[in-house]
Amino acid sequence: MTKIKKTISDIIGKNNWIDGKDAQKYYRDWLNINGTIPMGVAFPANTNDVSEIVKVCSHENIEIIPQGGNTGLVGASVPSQGKSIIVSFEKMHKIIKLDVDSGLMVVEAGVILADVHAALNETNLEFPMHLGSEGSARIGGLVATNAGGNQAFRFGMMTDLVLGLEVVLPDGQVFEGVREVQKDNSGYQLRSLFCGSEGTLGLITKVVLKLVPKSTNVETGLVGFKDLNTAVKFCRDFSCQFHNFLMAIEFFTDFGVDLILKLSTDNDFPVKDRASIYVLFELGATSSLLDIRKPLIDYLSSNLVSSELVDCIVANSESQRRKIWFFREEQPEGQRLIGEQIKNDISVPIGSIEEFITRAIKICSEVNPNLRINYFGHMGDGNIHFNISPPEGNAAFTEKERGLSQKIAALANEMNGSFAAEHGIGRTKKVIYNELRGEAERDLRLKIKKSIDNQNIFNKGVIN
Amino acid sequence: MTKIKKTISDIIGKNNWIDGKDAQKYYRDWLNINGTIPMGVAFPANTNDVSEIVKVCSHENIEIIPQGGNTGLVGASVPSQGKSIIVSFEKMHKIIKLDVDSGLMVVEAGVILADVHAALNETNLEFPMHLGSEGSARIGGLVATNAGGNQAFRFGMMTDLVLGLEVVLPDGQVFEGVREVQKDNSGYQLRSLFCGSEGTLGLITKVVLKLVPKSTNVETGLVGFKDLNTAVKFCRDFSCQFHNFLMAIEFFTDFGVDLILKLSTDNDFPVKDRASIYVLFELGATSSLLDIRKPLIDYLSSNLVSSELVDCIVANSESQRRKIWFFREEQPEGQRLIGEQIKNDISVPIGSIEEFITRAIKICSEVNPNLRINYFGHMGDGNIHFNISPPEGNAAFTEKERGLSQKIAALANEMNGSFAAEHGIGRTKKVIYNELRGEAERDLRLKIKKSIDNQNIFNKGVIN
């Protein structure tokens, strides 16, 4: 161990190494469920450092776990065995280039998502990736997990927003794919292969991000419905009528609202009449030539009259807008605070959202009718976080209740959806993956893994 | 040869086989440049047929060339050697499912793109892939080439529009990835790997297409500019102001207009005052609640006053709209009729379009100032078809002129763009690919190819 520490310290400098035992912040994950002590954490300063570290580890057969903000939810950013080092990209956080005319940005892998947003403040462009962890999630990790977020139904997932990549491969060679164009059909889409590879195929060092014109004219609203059915019907029509402006269409439940109200007594819910299901929408126009407020208010008013809506509000200020979003984005945190939970990161065809939720609730209540279910997510792409907490007063789940994870996953699969919509497979969803995905499919991934990382140096046991 | 014919005929029936010598339509490509006589052409009726054919060919070591509409431009859909069969998907043209609520469609690989559009006529949805060859290009081929088209800057390329795939692998096994969700991070994005694999990794048999709300309110216009610089500046501002509605923003030259006028005496150019560069735009709104005509006319009027625009027209009828598009879409056909040509399918960062064209013209005129250059393409994503015809009166290029292809490609590469934006590598761009893409990158693709098709049964010599 001392030898490795010395060899790597010689490459990157002593200050850029932490011994494993002192690195709990790095080797345990956000949920504090996964992670064992590695040999250490290395903080490279540039691509060359990364390449040299990889060569050393490859020679010594030491596993490398690449790490961005360590906000992942499937145990893929922390070690599962001790003969390993974490390569943290914290110190590679330069914004290399911002090309406004071309609508793109070249960044190092360690740049935090919120810093990408901030760097665009003075421009007429934005990077359309928004998720709860944007204050700590780093670009390399977002690429490696193919992050989705709130605007994925409109602008796509990370794979759709990455124009180019630089990646250090298991032999230390560098794939130089820092291209600045959307259209590049010069062979297999390697950029897409690394998006969602969860650190198993290469260490991402630079990323070219695609930017879009900024919405200067934004309307955010929250609408309450008496039940899921009316909410889904509303969303279908609304999404079509306002398709051109729709930036986000999210949902959560009244149970979720209570979770947030418990977070702090400062929180007050912006809609007066409580309902069963809430839909959050955000419309945006890039130009003051385009009026969205009037058609929006007209539309909501006529729907209010037809009494499909319990109540609704359109934000009148940025602080009101933030408050609305707070109730959606703090759902994971609100539920984390009430104890153990089973997180199901599901997607189903958007026409089947209601059917999925109805059937999933039934499956749960057959096991225990007192389980506390908090479902919320992205109405625009059918991505539902169907999360379960034990009954009030119970600290933990029973064994049978834990089995629900598998059942909910199987239901999504049966409905032509996914049991790993946004968060990936990592180490924690491998059992489900092996059960629900066919042999031909898994075999394809394993072949690809072996062809690129034959020695299994990168993130051993993740996905494959 | 007789043996193979018999074995395959026994699987798919005699009527679904054509001997190679009788199959010129299938073994020569659209440009009539590539293709030699194969053993025959097989027309499977379903996935099982495809799988059985693959098993036979794999056993006998016979190359398979998958073929959709045979509209490819890089020689990837026709054989380059005789120990081969073409698998045509012409007879697999069923639309299996149209799910309006989920905004998706499941089709067999042989469905023609225009038939997808037609099937959506009575719905409020559309499939946002439009290109010149849509009357003959088939979905499987569009996936395998990762087609781009006119709306790629907005809705993405084929890889962004494919939710799921079914693919027959080189051992005859079937990858069952017919999922119906955008968000599926259950391991490497195999759907994206097959998008752009040019028939080298698997035979695509079924595709789940993502649909979007239909624009019911469409405005199409054509604007003339005195030079490229003013056209590019206009596009930059216009794209931002009308971003929410922008469906297409294309361009072509006055030389290109003459090409189309020669196609038939019936064609008349819709803009009165001829200019140097023309920009075609199309705006679309999905709802009658949203007015686009008034802000558009206001915008164009104020720009006309500032005399940046030579002339412009906004279509007043569907036939006028079609006429405008005709001048853009028939550019390839117009140029094909004036003889041999060098087709350069380039993309550059959109901020560098003007620089690229200026430098590329200079490179050409240094070789021969009388070359006829016809550049046109997609302003929204920097995809430029920079096509060259020999000087007036010359039937063919000189050797030195042919070398321009390499030089133009190298220029795009130097500018962080691509020399194969939409059309792929196929067989005809391999020399350029080997020269311009680094060893680490090519090696990655070769490793993937070998890991999946170790015997090199599928489209030998394409890409790798």
Q: How many structural units, i.e. domains of chain A? A: 4
Counting helices, strands and paired strands, the structural category of chain A is alpha+beta
C-alpha Rg of chain A, in Å?
Answer: 23 Å
N- to C-terminal separation of chain A? Answer: 27 Å
Mean residue pLDDT of chain A: 95
Question: Largest contact between protein chains?
Answer: A-B, 99 and 99 residues
Q: Strand portion of chain A, in percent?
A: 15-25%
Query: Any idea of the CATH topology of the largest domain in chain A?
Result: Uridine Diphospho-n-acetylenolpyruvylglucosamine Reductase, domain 3
Strand tally of chain A, please? 18
Approximate helicity band of chain A? 25-40%
Enumerate how many helices of chain A there are, as a single number: 18
CATH architecture of the largest domain in chain A: 2-Layer Sandwich
Morphology call of chain A: globular
Protein name (chains A, B): Membrane bound lytic murein transglycosylase B protein
InterPro entries (chains A, B): FAD-bd_oxidored_4_C, FAD-bd_PCMH, FAD-bd_PCMH-like_sf, FAD-bd_PCMH_sub1, FAD-bd_PCMH_sub2, FAD-linked_Oxase-like_C, FAD-oxidored/transferase_4, Oxid_FAD_bind_N
Keywords (chains A, B): FAD, Flavoprotein
GO molecular function (chains A, B): catalytic activity; FAD binding
